[in-house]
Amino acid sequence: MLPSAVQNATKILRPSTWSPARLSVSSTVTGRTPPLCAIYRPRIDPIGEGIADRRWLHSTAKWRPVQALDEWVAKEARPISLRQLMVFGRSLTEERLISSANYVRTELPTRIAHRIRDMQRLPYVVVTNRHMSEVYELYYTAFDTFRRVKEIKTLEDNDKFCSIIAGMLRAHLTVIPKLAMGILECNGLMSAADLDRFMNTILRSRISRRVIAEQHLALTETFNSDWFSPGAKLSESEFIGEVFLKCVARDVVESCGRAVQDLARSAYGPDAAIPEIRVDGHLGATFPYILTHLQYIVGELLRNSVQAVIENHRKNPTTDKKPPPIEVTLCEAQQHVIIRISDRGGGISRDTLPYLWSFGKGPSTDQRLENLGQVPLMAATLQELRVDGNLQNDVVGHGGSHGSRYDEHNGSLTSLSTRPPNLRLGISLPLSRVYAEYWAGSLELHSLEGYGVDAFLQISKLGNKNEQLATRAAMDAV
Question: Does residue 138 sit within a domain?
Answer without folding.
Answer: yes
